[in-house]
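Hi F.,

I've been meaning to write this up properly since the lab meeting, where we talked about keeping a consistent format for the predictions we share between groups. The idea is simple: the sequence comes first, exactly as it goes in, then the structure tokens exactly as they come out, then a line or two of notes. No screenshots and no reformatting. I'm using this chain as the first example so we have something concrete to point to.
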Amino acid sequence: MNEQELKIKQFELERDKFEFEKKKIESENQFLKKHLITILTLIISIATTVATLLVTNAQVTVAQIGKDRELGMQEQQKNREHSIELAKFIAANKSSINGSKEDRELFRSTLMAAYPDFSSRVFKNLEVAAVDNGVKKTWSDGLKFLESKDFDKLEIHFAS
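Output, unedited:
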């Protein structure tokens, strides 16, 4: 084989290589053309799913905030109702607050049993308002009892 034939063979080889690469690129382009709609549908579907998840998460968050707000309002309403009941109870038992030691202790025990969450506030106010040391002691003893949280020992003795 001479040099001329060698160059021709090399040229043909390069041409075949070029044709192969050309067909390969055309094949890849055909794949994209064939599956472009499917790929676009997949991308749109994924985007829609992500958007749906984000919206759902936002809705759940808004619902939770609304529920928390509603529960807070219910708790405030409950506290207002308890405060009104407590005020009525205190007004109805004013004579016990200013009465004998036994009357005060009965009132103190009843108040702790009926309104344990509000008793400490009432006892603090009554202790501050009390002039007599014996009266102050009744309310400070109530505060100490509430701080101990030993409600199993709470006894209510009715005066005879």
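Notes:
Residues 39 and 152 are 71 Å apart (CA to CA).
The chain has a mean pLDDT of 85.

If this format works for you, I'll send the rest the same way.

G.
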